[in-house]
Amino acid sequence: MSQEEFGTLAFEVMRRVFEIRQEFGRFFEEKIYKRELARRLPGVALEVPVDVIFQSFSKRYFLDAVYQESALFEFKMAEAIVARHRAQTLHYLFVGGLGHAKLVNLRPEVVEHEFVNTTLRPEDRLRFSIQIDRWNAAVPGAQRVEEVLVALLRDFGVGLELSLYEEAITHFLGGEADVLQEVEIVSAGTSLGHQRLRLCAPSVAFKLTALPDHLEVFEDQARRLLQHTRLDALLWINLTLERVTFTTIQ
User: Fold this and answer.
1) 3-state class of 132 per DSSP?
2) Domain final position from 117, 133, 164
3) Model confidence over 76-127: pLDDT tens digits?
4) Burial 194-215 (b: 16+ CB within 10 A, else e)
5) What pairing do the DSSP bridges indicate for beta strands 243-249 and 190-201?
6) Which one of 97, 117, 137 terminates a domain?
7) Other Cβ atoms closer than 10 A to 37
8) Are the C-beta atoms of 152 and 169 separated by less than 8 Å?
9) How many angstroms separate the CA atoms of 100 and 120, rounded?
10) With bands split at pLDDT 50, 70 and 90, how would you rate the model's confidence at 1?
11) What whole-number distance in Å separates Cα of residue 39 and Cα of residue 27?
12) Where are the alpha helices (DSSP H) in the chain?
């Protein structure tokens, strides 16, 4: 679907959205507005399920509203549209195999709405390089994490929500009961409490990020974390659309 074609559909939908907001006001829950939209405009499907599957792992997402089986509309009830909302909508475009969406925030006094578009095709998100020059595969669990994540990325592609990759890795490492562990935080030999981290092996944690730059800032903070735990290493993987960088911090 072209941007122009989507714009035509978006105009039809948004006309009803504005009418509904004018009549209903801004204090109802999101589901009320969506149901009224579907009632007024035939062709609007709500909570459209999309399954992401890799081997024994699966996760289901629900797209807020899809018009004529091709135009995505994501609704929010927030103080303002923020980067997290745009990223989530882009994620839904990727998993739904769509190119255009409209992000609509119904809570403010004046309805906020933005286009969210991507020209990336599924095959484009598979064209990434892998950097492992600072990766120590001999660290317990490192080889398994690398194998699982690379296989996931070869199937899903890059650019999806980090939580999806983390959930999938956790699944293949045995599930949350094995991976999410309480790690003791210490200072000068004194225990300050515990914090939940994802472990791929005893005393080895792993963390995924999607930082476009300033990686040295994250690494500095990660080393501070290590200094105040009894962990031996942190396996850090940074994902961008162009490169996946594996780093072992010890």
Assistant:
1) strand
2) 117
3) 999 999 999 999 999 999 999 999 999 999 999 999 999 999 999 999 999 9
4) eeebbbbbeebbbbbebeeeee
5) unpaired
6) 117
7) 22
8) yes
9) 11
10) confident
11) 19
12) 3-24, 30-40, 83-96, 142-156, 162-172, 176-179, 215-227
CATH number at residue 30: 3.90.320.10
For the chain, the farthest-separated pair of C-alpha atoms sits apart, in whole angstroms, at: 65
171 half-sphere exposure, CB direction, 13 A CA radius:
16
With both helix axes pointing from N to C terminus, report the angle between 30-40 and 3-24 in degrees, rounded to the nearest 10. Answer: 110
Distance from C-alpha of 229 to C-alpha of 232, rounded to nearest angstrom: 9
pLDDT at 249 over 90: yes
Question: Do 140 and 210 belong together in one domain?
Answer: yes
Extract the tokens encoding 245.
Answer: 């960088």
* Tally of structural domains, the chain: 2
Give the separation between CA 99 and CA 119, rounded to whole angstroms. Answer: 6
* Contacts with 227 (C-beta within 8 Å, 6 or more apart), sequence order: none
Place of tokens 């092996």: 201
Dist CA 53 CA 56 (whole Å):
8
Collapsing DSSP to helix, strand or coil, 109 comes out as: coil
Bridge partner residues of 243 (DSSP): 129
Q: Are strands 44-54 and 204-209 parallel, antiparallel or unpaired?
A: unpaired
pLDDT of residue 246: 98
pTM of structure: 0.93
Of 27, 246, 230, 243, the residue nearest 142 (C-alpha): 246
* 45: containing domain: 3-117
Do 156 and 84 reside in the same domain of the chain?
no
Q: What tokens does 196 get?
A: 């939940």
The C-alpha atoms of residue 250 and residue 247 are separated, in whole angstroms, by 10
